[in-house]
Protein 1
Amino acid sequence: MATLDEMIGRVMPLDAEAIEEAKRRLDSLTKPPGSLGKLEKLVWQTAGVTGEVTPDLTKKAVIVMAGDHGVTEEGISAFPSEVTQQMVMNFLAGGAAVNVLARQAGAEVLCVDIGVDAELSHPDLIQRKIRRGAGNIARGPAMSRAEAEAAIRAGYELVAERAAAGCRVFATGEMGIGNTTPSAAVFMALTGVSAQEAVGRGTGIDDAGLARKRRVVEQALAVNAPSAEDPLGVLAAVGGLELAGLAGVILGAAAHRSLVVIDGFISSAAALAAVRLCPAAHDYIIASHVSEERGHARLLAELGLSPMLDLHMRLGEGTGAVLAFHLLDAAERIIREMATFESAGISGAREE
């Protein structure tokens, strides 16, 4: 069983030689250099991640981590907490938005019970429960440090299993009523941004609910006093089991030289924690989209990531990440199928 330090230690820098080879190949194609914008960055980032200019990215998976949150007791969500377990069963039945979009993208959906406050049974449910729901962060810690590390390890090991079976692309998805609250708390704890900047409406609360939610997040930070210098401690104090699990997915993808496409605000908070734990993991991450949730654009800026899409989405589940799979496929088709100036008999750009 790998320790957190061992998981982090397995993340290596991108393959610089493969990146340069991909850039040379891109510049030889029948187009002005750089004219395909972010698609070109996807090409060379993929080469750097995998060490191959034209890797096989056929196998893709979206990992949906599900967990509950005691902080829903504070009235911070428009939906009751039992919706978490109900939506888990919807994922397993193939009826959620992420299932529909994953089928279109040719990706499998892996639904993981990492902290649902119920005993669920289904042949396709991946059981990795650490505990039945995170604690109420307004009154105490979400979990212990040992539980936070166990949740990270669960995400890491799941990626390791799928990577061994040939999966090279992972997307982060989640389900947990109330989870924008701990996500905002993690964001604030790691960066010092204000509740006004970080806390949004989540599932659609009204103005009074938003004001209450901001007070709850501020109370959580005051009660738990997490340190920005201790990312694991931040996850334990004010995070959630699915957040820690997704941080493990990101570390696992990086350790196994695979791409990880993050979804919205919650996934990005998990990514920030992962990058603070392991800065080298940053280069393995693709930001799929910027969501409507307050603070997401600021969070992506903190991560130094530029989103591929802006579709005014705020659903979560991994929906935006799965949509970005199509752009990744487009980038890979460019490098594989587009003619070079030489092969097409077309004159290249003149040198000054």
Note: The chain has two domains: 4-54+335-344, 60-331.
Protein 2
Amino acid sequence: MSDTGHLNQLSGLQQKVDQFAKERDWEKFHTPKNLSMALAVEASELMEIFQWRDGQESVSSLPEKTREAINHEVADVFIYLLRLCSVTGIDLLAAAEEKLAQNAQKYPADLVRGKSNKYSEY
């Protein structure tokens, strides 16, 4: 799919998420504070699925029920992120592109390849 196609899909999904909130009169609850907290809660629920696992197993080796839970939590994180971007007026794709460019400067591939140090340590 082209970049334009993905952009249209993302925009369409964001509109669906916004409409979902509007139809339920939830807009009044969707403040940046509340949405950022909900986003953190959902990210924590995703982390909880992996808690106490050895970290070496692949997701495909997990039981179907666990993979489904991962799928749902990832979707929750994404939906709250889209909603937060709508409420704050952030262009998610532009913000991600900008951050990726900043990270490329902080972490030049030839300098950091195979290392996990923070940029201030290079």
Note: Residues 31-109 form a domain with the Helix Hairpins fold (CATH 1.10.287.1080).
Protein 3
Amino acid sequence: MQVVDAILTSVTQKHLEDAATLWEPILRGSGEEDEYWDWVSKSYRTKFLPGDELYAIECDGTTQGLMTIDILKKRCYIESQLRRRLVYIRALATAPWNRLAITNPPTYKGVGGTLIDFAIARSSEELGYQGRIGLHALPGALVFYRKLRVGLLDCGPDPEEPDNLNYFETLRTDR
């Protein structure tokens, strides 16, 4: 495995253009669960909802991953952490060429994990939430989230979620 330099930054118009012009044509008809996600719309939402933020990973001048988070409105579900603030990951995607299901071997590995690590760092270092994060996972991403070494607990299907998606949350005991 070769480590490469990348930039993790707030999303710019260029990142959104990459998603629309480079990602979408590959994803349409791919059967990937996020094939119809519209990152321009997700970006628009972050401009009007306090606490919503959008980030990108860029390598070799091209957007390799995108993530939108909510840093204000969500609270922990795990009983021992109940009602503590966390960073909620609304959406996370890697470029199609970084997905084993589309490109074997993927161009870059670790993009999704790096975005998760960033969310944890944002939660811990910048916001004082002790690294707590939460997210609802698409069915095809369950194995990915279960294998992460950051300690995400699979809380099972969330009956309050319209699609009954599994909810994951970091299990932290620090106060």
Note: The first helix runs from residue 13 to 27.
Protein 4
Amino acid sequence: MTSPYIRRLRPAFSTLGLLLLVSACGGAGGEEIGAVDTVFKFIGPDHKIVVDAYDDPKVAGVTCYVSRAKTGGLKGAFGLAEDKAEASIACRQTGVISFGDKPLDKQEEMFSERISLVFKRLRVVRMIDTKRNTLVYLTYSDRVIEGSPQNSVTAVPVPAGTVIPVK
């Protein structure tokens, strides 16, 4: 027989478990290159700017570096904070550029990462400029209710002898 006190706490434990599960999900698998602290917090991690590297999953030899603000404090420590919408991107050729067996879409999302508990995501979209034989990468954030006009763009020219396979 369960005590009345434990029965009253069950919904709270269920909610806490759901919040922890949601906060653990949704990473894009980027590799953190480094971070700098911007605001000291007495409790929890400091606010910081982080730089992550993301290899393009469909284009070998291209890596995108994304810098963004990461909220600290107690909310940041538990994954409950909403990070700022601003981000910067720089994509570079880091090896021999090659493409898989399948042609690329003219425009597609390369990766996305959660930057708030539920509603906001940081996204990187790859576009192909066939006229200039260039890969263009755009980063922006979106929300379920409204998007953000803040964005950043970068481009990686593909060597003249290599043709980008487009659908």
Note: Helices lie at 4-24, 73-77.
